[in-house]
Amino acid sequence: MKRGETNLGPDGEKRTAKQDRLMDRLIAELLTHPNLEDAAAAAGVSRTSAWRWLKSADFIARLRTARRDAMQRAMARLQEVATQSVDTLNAIQTSGESESARVSAARTILELALRSVELQDVEERIGKLEEALKSRNWRGAGNDTEPNQAAPGGARTINGRA
Q: pTM value?
């Protein structure tokens, strides 16, 4: 878009290229500031504009995407350093200077190991449920009858409800 041209956003509102850039800057600042006022000031946007944009479905969708991307980057970073953390806990557990440090490291290792196993179990159960749903024509819990078909006891159902 050239300077001064307007663009219709997905929400149908007219915006200039400058407004789009300011929205992007505000989104970036919202990821690092504790409140809207501070983020707006850092982005060079008025509080009024920031509040108005927060009511826009397009802006909210862009902000959610940016937050999701930032969280995925943070989780990837945590996964990168997790091995070092386990090594550190193991070193403290085996050769820590105080008994309380060794016990604390051992407890942390056991708690995290248990959570890991629980998470794997949940993921496996969800996978099995998803496969079961894919393998049959599922219509919802307790909805084994067709609409308007006589239910047990002679009652007729509408959309699967008596």
A: 0.54
